[in-house]
Amino acid sequence: MFNQTELKNKKISEIIAEYPYTENFFKEQKLVLNDQEKNLKEIFQNLSLEAREDVVFDLEQFTASLLSYIENMQEFLGETDSVVKTLSILAGKDKSGYPENYKQLNIKSGEIISIVGPTGSGKSRLLADIEWTAQGDTPTERKILINDQIPDKKWRFTGGKKLVAQLSQNMNFVMDLSVKEFLHLHAESRLVEQEDALVDRIFEEANQLAGEKFAAEAQITSLSGGQSRALMIADTAILSSSPIILIDEIENAGINREKALELLVGEEKIVLMATHDPVLALMGDKRIIINNGGIADIITTTAEEKKLRRELQILDKLLGDLREDLRYGKKLGQISQQLTAIKLIN
Ligand SMILES: Nc1ncnc2c1ncn2[C@@H]1O[C@H](COP(=O)(O)OP(=O)(O)OP(=O)(O)O)[C@@H](O)[C@H]1O
């Protein structure tokens, strides 16, 4: 981000290249830009008396308001969000009031963290603490830091621009729009460039994730659970500016869960995922073990476990194919040969 002095000395072409929306600002301010290779200082020095009256501001005021325009636009577009380098979870206490069994967990951008634990142990609570950027003010008394600092309270309350995007099990659409209309509406609200190409990409990715394909003209209310979930995941991965993604249970949703995760982490986001499924849990770099409301352990995925995951993937695919055959009324055969092939038996 340029400061005010830098702005004065930057060529107009450089400012527009860095922040394309400033072209509008210059137009609104009626600044005549015959030569975009000049900097703002030079332009103001060369303004005719007449032109100077049109611009109203002097150089100081002009660059100050240009700067705040850029800051506002960046905030609006969510571009300042991408600077989350680390998310830290500081220990609180479990349901019995005992301190948690760790001090501080630092998660870097691009990392996947799984959260595992029995039903009712507090997995969703941990995700909620992160979403709320808790500061000792939730039942667990955990604290959340972003880039080693107490996060700004604005993260909690702003509507459009969010630190955290949450994908939950219930994904009900209420609007009566086609898939394409919905995506365009969202893309427009984010003021993205190349809207058509982006919408096409989200649509294609969503169709790759969905077990059953759907058309761009389909009404979103008519999509199946798996299809709407696939659409939301592709939309979140590609359009959301939130640097942290929380996933509460992705299993049994009729989508390709691994591809979904790859798509989500592909964009240098932090992904935390509560799951009971070993194939997904082992996709994580680490897994948090929750028990009785507290973090009982943090385990780094071992090389052995990564090998196991490849075996489980094959098993998962076999089961998936069986489900598919079942659905389409086929007769099912034994799979012992395939199992032997992956050395799961014998
Ligand atoms: N450290 C804690 N102190 C007090 N209450 C807690 C704590 N951790 C979790 N809880 C509460 O325990 C209840 C169950 O937690 P939660 O819903 O997060 O479990 P879960 O692991 O997500 O369960 P499931 O697997 O069934 O979805 C919630 O009401 C939650 O607020």
TrEMBL record:
SUPFAM superfamilies assigned to the protein according to its UniProt record, in alphabetical order: P-loop containing nucleoside triphosphate hydrolases (SSF52540)
Matches recorded under InterPro entries: AAA+_ATPase, ABC_transporter-like_ATP-bd, ABC_transporter-like_CS, P-loop_NTPase
Record organism: Halanaerobium salsuginis
PROSITE patterns, per database record: ABC_TRANSPORTER_1 (PS00211), ABC_TRANSPORTER_2 (PS50893)
GO molecular function list: ATP binding; ATP hydrolysis activity
The protein's name: ABC-type lipoprotein export system, ATPase component
Residues covered by the ABC transporter domain: 84-318
Assigned protein family: Belongs to the ABC transporter superfamily.
A Pfam family that the UniProt record links to this protein: ABC_tran
Alphabetized SMART domains for the sequence: AAA
Keywords per UniProt: ATP-binding, Lipoprotein, Nucleotide-binding, Transport
